[in-house]
């Protein structure tokens, strides 16, 4: 089965980049290697069993290890599990843990051994509804996971995870799941010491002291809105491959704006370079040698239309609710958004290279050599630019006629953005001007509003305080199902289940039923075809407007992305393990040369892994 998994993994391509004590002996013979960065979005918790926010599990990914990890080519490697196997239909998976791995406290004191029960306790916490874990829905892949979460099963021993002995953990799944290994790369399957968790209760993960570590780093300092410092864990089982001794994050609410200057002054080791200054960098010989493209990843970006608006009355949520339920109105926005104009705010040189017509990016998975995005009927969407000014105007006229007497024009379209991102702020202004310029201010009034730089998801997106919003999603495992999660019932994006006229006879939305049918199909070719139909429906009905893939823009960095662990899903991209600090940043030419070499090496590594 491991060979089967590696074969499946070979169908998946690219992602990546991510994010010895602080009071250590600076006078020791070995020079301390320190990576410094600046941030504006503060984390609210270290509780990796509860959060689904990238900036939070990005920290935890360096503090706690899971059963498996990936090498720099995206090939699965042993983590806390030394070996594993599955039965023939991939419903039962057994993992043998490496011995001698320790849980340690924030000051490096050994607390306990890492044992199989820790994985049971972790999943018990995630699937206990009272803990409100944001990733519980992923964990329901295990047998009776959903039933336990919903209270239909109350005895956790009936859930499909067992500690067979101290160093053997077994998972029994609801359905055949050949991609299960990829799911283990996500925080809901991480271990926790049950005794420590019970002792700390709700304070678990609130401070670096209320936390245990078995990963490559320990959180030595945690001062919200000031500084956090990660230091190398000297008890780590694979410490020889932890090459950066210390990682120092400094808080600055204007991080996105000041980082480039801090980089030039030598105060930080990485900075995103906003589009507003990228020309200046490329026209200066010294700066040009320090800036390069970002590496593309499998985050997908799209504009979500909200069917359950919860914003203030001044923005007329009831009027928005009327118009968003008109398909022709939605289609006018779908065909009216000039995505190239929007992308120029991030990628001014090759904007078309970053655009995506689908939610699931190209090259994520394929079946029998055919890329998922080229399966019918999704292929028509994939191969057609959504922007069409003539169609947009036609849909506008039809929508206005249909909504006459039912809605008020111009329609207020509340479009917030995260104030911590200069490029996003600029893009919001561009989208406002472009849409109003094409469709007319008699039709729409796009209202751009600055949202918080910290807590944007919790304060804006999740409560539904938007009409139109740029959002993103990253895959959690190697299956198209992962890209359906934002839009299925209970998702926290635009609530398409509230769309009027799309309920089937069983009371569920049409899209939900399409996804459920795809998830229940185990034949890979049929499964992917059903997912392609569901995704095509979502886009053709203009519930969302696909926009781009992640990894856009330019950065200056002393990290080599091709040394990093690599995977399109889970927490791999956030790990510093395996990376060195470069003496000087990569130039764009050096980046392209290194990327070409990496792609060739990766193809060879994947071919060897299949043997």
UniProtKB/TrEMBL annotation:
<dbReference type="InterPro" id="IPR030678">
    <property type="entry name" value="Peptide/Ni-bd"/>
</dbReference>
<comment type="similarity">
    <text>Belongs to the bacterial solute-binding protein 5 family.</text>
</comment>
<dbReference type="InterPro" id="IPR039424">
    <property type="entry name" value="SBP_5"/>
</dbReference>
<dbReference type="GO" id="GO:0042597">
    <property type="term" value="C:periplasmic space"/>
</dbReference>
<dbReference type="GO" id="GO:0015833">
    <property type="term" value="P:peptide transport"/>
</dbReference>
<dbReference type="GO" id="GO:0043190">
    <property type="term" value="C:ATP-binding cassette (ABC) transporter complex"/>
</dbReference>
<dbReference type="GO" id="GO:1904680">
    <property type="term" value="F:peptide transmembrane transporter activity"/>
</dbReference>
<protein>
    <submittedName>
        <fullName>Oligopeptide transport system substrate-binding protein</fullName>
    </submittedName>
</protein>
<feature type="signal peptide">
    <location>
        <begin position="1"/>
        <end position="18"/>
    </location>
</feature>
<dbReference type="Pfam" id="PF00496">
    <property type="entry name" value="SBP_bac_5"/>
</dbReference>
<keyword id="KW-0813">Transport</keyword>
<dbReference type="InterPro" id="IPR023765">
    <property type="entry name" value="SBP_5_CS"/>
</dbReference>
<feature type="domain" description="Solute-binding protein family 5">
    <location>
        <begin position="76"/>
        <end position="493"/>
    </location>
</feature>
<keyword id="KW-0732">Signal</keyword>
<dbReference type="InterPro" id="IPR000914">
    <property type="entry name" value="SBP_5_dom"/>
</dbReference>
């Amino acid at each position: 089965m491991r060979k089967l998994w590696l074969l499946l993994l070979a169908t998946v391509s690219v992602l990546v980049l991510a994010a010895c004590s602080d009071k250590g002996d600076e006078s020791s013979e070995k020079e301390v290697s320190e990576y410094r960065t600046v941030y504006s979005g503060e984390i609210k918790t270290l509780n990796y069993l509860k959060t689904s926010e990238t900036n939070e599990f990005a920290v935890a990914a360096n503090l706690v290890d899971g059963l498996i990890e990936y090498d720099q080519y995206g090939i699965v490697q042993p983590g806390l599990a030394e070996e594993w196997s599955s039965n023939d239909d991939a419903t039962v998976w057994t993992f043998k843990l490496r011995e001698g791995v320790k849980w340690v406290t924030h000051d490096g004191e050994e607390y306990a051994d890492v044992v199989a029960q820790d994985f049971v306790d972790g999943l018990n916490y995630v699937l206990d509804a009272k803990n409100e874990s944001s990733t519980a829905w992923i964990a329901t892949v295990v047998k009776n996971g959903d039933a336990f979460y919903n209270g239909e099963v109350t005895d956790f021993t009936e859930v499909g995870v067992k500690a067979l002995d101290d160093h053997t953990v077994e998972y029994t799944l609801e359905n055949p799941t050949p991609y299960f290994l990829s799911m283990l790369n996500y925080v809901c399957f991480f271990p926790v010491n049950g005794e420590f968790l019970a002792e700390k209760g709700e304070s678990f993960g609130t401070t670096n002291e209320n936390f245990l570590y078995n990963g490559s780093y320990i959180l030595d300092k945690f001062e919200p809105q000031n500084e956090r410092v990660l230091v190398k864990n000297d008890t780590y089982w694979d410490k020889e491959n932890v090459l950066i001794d210390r990682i120092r994050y400094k808080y600055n609410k204007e991080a996105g704006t000041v980082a480039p200057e801090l980089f030039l002054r030598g105060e930080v080791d990485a900075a995103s370079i906003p589009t507003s200054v990228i020309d200046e960098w490329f026209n200066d010989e010294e700066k040009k040698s320090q800036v390069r493209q970002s590496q593309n990843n499998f985050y997908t970006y799209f504009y979500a239309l909200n069917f359950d608006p919860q914003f203030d009355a001044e923005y007329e949520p009831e009027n928005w609710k009327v118009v968003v339920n008109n398909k022709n109105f939605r289609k006018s926005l779908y065909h009216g958004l000039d995505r190239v104009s929007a992308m120029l705010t991030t990628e001014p040189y090759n904007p078309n290279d970053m655009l995506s017509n689908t939610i699931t990016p190209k090259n994520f998975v394929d079946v029998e050599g055919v890329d998922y995005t080229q399966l019918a009927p999704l292929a028509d969407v994939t191969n057609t630019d959504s922007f069409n000014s003539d169609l947009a105007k036609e849909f506008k006229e039809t929508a206005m006629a249909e909504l006459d007497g039912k809605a008020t024009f111009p329609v207020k379209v509340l479009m917030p953005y995260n104030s911590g991102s200069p490029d996003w702020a600029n893009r919001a202004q561009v989208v406002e001007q472009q849409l109003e310029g094409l469709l007319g201010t008699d039709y729409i009034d796009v209202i751009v509003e600055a949202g918080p730089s910290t807590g944007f998801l919790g304060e804006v997106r999740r409560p539904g305080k938007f009409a139109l919003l740029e959002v993103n999603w990253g895959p959690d495992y190697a299956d198209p199902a992962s890209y359906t999660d934002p839009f299925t019932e209970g998702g926290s994006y635009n609530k398409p289940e509230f769309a009027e006229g799309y309920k089937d006879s069983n009371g569920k939305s049409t899209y939900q039923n399409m996804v459920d049918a795809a998830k229940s199909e185990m034949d890979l070719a049929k499964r992917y075809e059903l997912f392609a139909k569901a995704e095509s429906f979502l886009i053709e009905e203009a519930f969302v407007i696909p926009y781009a893939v992640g990894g856009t823009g330019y950065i200056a960095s002393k990290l080599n992305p091709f040394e990093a662990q690599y995977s399109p899903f889970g927490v791999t991209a956030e790990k510093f393990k395996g990376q060195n600090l470069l003496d000087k940043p990569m130039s764009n030419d050096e980046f392209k040369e290194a990327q070409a070499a990496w792609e060739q090496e990766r193809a060879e590594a994947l071919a060897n892994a299949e043997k």
